[in-house]
Amino acid sequence: MIWTVVIACLVLAAYVYLRAQRRSDRTSGADDTGLAIVEFGRVFPNEAIREVISTAGGDGVFLRLHDGKVGCMRARGTRFTCLLIEPGGVLVHNSPSGKGLAIEFHDNPRENGSFEFSTSGEAAEVSLWLLGSLLPAAGIEEAPRTLQRDS
Predict the structure, then answer these.
(1) Which domain of life, per UniProt (predicted)?
(2) What are the residues facing 23 on neighbouring strands?
(3) In the beta sheet, which residues pair with residue 74?
(4) How many alpha carbons fall within 13 Å on the CB side of residue 124?
(5) Is the pTM of this model over 0.85?
(6) Distance between CA atoms of 80 and 42, rounded to whole angstroms?
(7) Can you tell me the distance from the alpha carbon of 50 to that of 69, in angstroms, rounded to the nearest whole number?
(8) Which residue of 21, 32, 81, 150 has the fewest CB atoms within a 10 Å radius of its CB?
(9) Which secondary structure element, helix H or strand E, spans residue 90, and what is its range?
(10) How far apart are CA 142 and CA 133, in angstroms?
């Protein structure tokens, strides 16, 4: 009789542990920056990532890419939606809190939403990335800079 109770307790403990583990995997998947880099690299293998900023809730990740483009990942439970933001593909507004951005994706209206960041500096950095992705890089030629000294 005592062995039956011990085995039942062990089975119950294993069930509770596995359920808690599954719940933590579901909620913390987007918080892992390494996972975001791996998943984005799997979807877009030819894009080199320069910098990554996550949202405060961990449900979104913005990636600055090597050629001035911007990547966006949104967590949907245990799955991710990966987007490559093309020039002219988004409309960005400030959120009332000052620490977030309201973004409208022209190509994927289902992904429209508000993204809140930990600091207003992170929100400003991502908005600058998005601004850079809106400028056509091919038509801009930078004039050579010369150093002039006043005598």
Answers:
(1) Bacteria
(2) none
(3) 60, 81
(4) 4
(5) no
(6) 11
(7) 10
(8) 150
(9) strand 90-94
(10) 17
Class of domain 33-134: mainly beta
> Which of residues 36 and 4 earns the better pLDDT score?
4
- Residue extents of the structural domains in the chain: 33-134
CA distance 99 to 78: 26
| 3-state class (DSSP) for residue 92 | strand
pLDDT digits (tens, 9 = 90+) for 97-125: 778 888 888 888 888 888 898 888 898 88
**Token digits for 128?**
């600058």
Amino acid (one-letter) located at 50: R
* Token pair recorded at residue 85: 């933001």
CB 55 within 8 A of CB 115: yes
Note the pLDDT of residue 129: 87
In tens, the pLDDT along 25-61 reads 554 444 567 877 888 889 999 988 888 998 888 888 9
